[in-house]
């Protein structure tokens, strides 16, 4: 099976909703999307999910009248794919540069820094 294409920003938004909801109908995805995007119509959500199905980004269970959509890839796998692409394109292949940019740019909270530090400490103990 080939790797699906990289999702567009709108498709990524739908994937984030599906990861949070689990398998869902277009109606449920639309309802969840309205919190952040009150202008988004049901027809737009349905069409986007149909296009995403055609691209292989989501699966579709057609056994019931209302089709149920689910991400075709696990969230971790999708995030890893997108992160590798970002590291290559924006940070010249350097994961270190990405991490430093996140830490220095104020994108990491104090709680997240503590979690990262604990994770690094665990790694050091295992070496």
TrEMBL record:
The keyword Hydrolase does not apply. It holds the Pfam family Penicillinase_R. GO terms for biological process: negative regulation of DNA-templated transcription. It comes from the Bacteria. Gene3D superfamilies: Winged helix-like DNA-binding domain superfamily/Winged helix DNA-binding domain (1.10.10.10). InterPro entries: BlaI_family, WH-like_DNA-bd_sf, WH_DNA-bd_sf. One of its GO terms (molecular function) is DNA binding. Coiled coil: none annotated. Keywords: DNA-binding, Transcription, Transcription regulation. Belongs to the BlaI transcriptional regulatory family. This is BlaI/MecI/CopY family transcriptional regulator. It comes from Pseudoduganella umbonata.
């Amino acid at each position: 099976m080939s790797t699906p294409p990289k999702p567009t920003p709108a498709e990524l938004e739908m994937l984030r909703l599906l990861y949070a909801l689990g398998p869902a109908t277009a109606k449920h995805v639309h309802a969840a999307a309205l919190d952040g995007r009150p202008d988004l119509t049901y027809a737009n959500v349905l069409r986007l999910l149909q296009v995403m199905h055609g691209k292989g980004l989501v699966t579709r269970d057609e056994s019931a009248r209302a089709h149920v959509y689910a991400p075709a890839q696990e969230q971790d796998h999708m995030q890893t794919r997108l992160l590798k692409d970002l590291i290559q394109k924006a940070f010249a292949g350097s994961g270190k540069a990405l991490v430093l940019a996140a830490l220095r740019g104020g994108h990491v909270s104090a709680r997240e820094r503590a979690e990262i530090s604990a994770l690094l400490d665990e790694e050091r103990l295992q070496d």
